[in-house]
Amino acid sequence: MHTEISNGEQIVRRMLTVIKAEKETELAKYLDVSKQTVYSWKSRGSVPLNYCAEFAMKSGASLDFLILGFDTHLLRREEGFSNVAEIHRLEDLSLETLQGIQQDTQYTEIPLYDVEASAGDGSFFDEERIASYLKFRNDWLTREGLHKKDLVAIRVAGDSMDRTLADGDTVLIDRSKKKPDGVFAIRIGDSLRIKRLQKLTDGSLRVSSDNDVYQPEIIHPENMDQVEIVGQCYWRGGRVF
User: Fold this and answer.
1) For all residues of the chain together, what is the average pLDDT?
2) CA-derived radius of gyration, the chain
3) Where exactly does CATH 1.10.260.40 map onto the chain?
4) CA distances from 134 to 151, 221, 236 (A)
5) Digit-coded pLDDT (tens) for 71-111
6) What span, in angstroms and rounded, lies between the C-alpha atoms of 41 and 43?
7) Over 90: is that where the pLDDT of 177 sits?
8) What is the pLDDT of residues 27-40, one digit of tens each?
9) pTM of this prediction exceeds 0.70
10) Which residue in 89, 154, 91 sits closest to 125, CA to CA?
11) Which residue from 3, 62, 111, 148 lies 20 to 30 Å from 174 (Cα-Cα)?
């Protein structure tokens, strides 16, 4: 189960303090994640436990400080703090946190966004917001040559990619791969779609569906600025019929 630590805005602020940075973009670079990921921690008010652990190990900062705002070991040495029961409670909380970290060390969590990529005629793209996370084994990511900073997951809506992707499937997108040919997530105007792309000899882009009911589209070179290739669809997960 994915573990979120509340007080996301305060945790981000403490991380910035530790690395002596002012901007979220600097923290994103430090943790090798997208700046949207850091912004989402603040907006939804929580930070995934594994990122807190990664930051603590990389920076040498106390996990107590990141999550609780103070270090229980320092509290024991401070004059005037004599609430032993409170110290024990905080130490128990830290132990539970560390145990959760140890369970997650073999996995990387990839954000699943609450946007649906149309596999039909195209659905309006409202807002990129993390809905949950998918866990992938680190050894599998390494074997496949994938890097977490490049990966996002979204769900498919529609039937135009039937035989390859079904309505409701989850797809893992590698944003570092944007050169056709293959199945890609693309933006055309305000719509996000998953389609099969083929670069033609005249520089045009053939956008097709695997369901023969849907006719292919041709994007001519002079209109290529209207298309953004988000990334290649690398993995799918869904119901077995």
Assistant:
1) 80
2) 22
3) 4-104
4) 11, 37, 12
5) 544 444 444 444 445 444 444 555 555 455 445 567 888 88
6) 6
7) yes
8) 999 998 888 889 88
9) no
10) 154
11) 3
Helix axes 84-104, 49-59, angle to 10 degrees: 100
- Strand-pairing partners, residue 54, are none
Question: 91 — alpha (psi -120 to 50), left (phi > 0) or beta?
Answer: alpha
Architecture of the domain made up of 4-104: Orthogonal Bundle (1.10)
Give the relative orientation of helices 24-31 and 49-59 as an angle to the nearest 10 degrees: 80
The token pair that represents 18 in the structure block: 């530790």
Which band of pLDDT confidence, cut at 50, 70 and 90, is reported for residue 116?
low
Q: If you classify domain 108-237 with CATH, what class do you get?
A: mainly beta
Q: What sign does the CA torsion over 62, 63, 64, 69 have?
A: positive
Instruction: Tell me how many degrees the CA angle 190-40-52 measures, rounded to the nearest 5.
Output: 150
What percent of the chain is modeled with pLDDT above 90?
39
User: What angle (nearest 5°) sits at the alpha carbon of residue 122, between those of residues 120 and 126?
Assistant: 135
> pLDDT tens digits, residue range 129-161?
677 788 899 899 999 999 988 998 999 989 999
For the chain, residues classed under CATH 2.10.109.10 are 108-237
Question: Does residue 176 surpass a pLDDT of 80?
Answer: yes
Of the CA atoms within 13 Å of residue 64, those in its CB half-sphere come to: 15
Q: In the structure encoding, which two tokens stand for residue 41, read together?
A: 């921690």
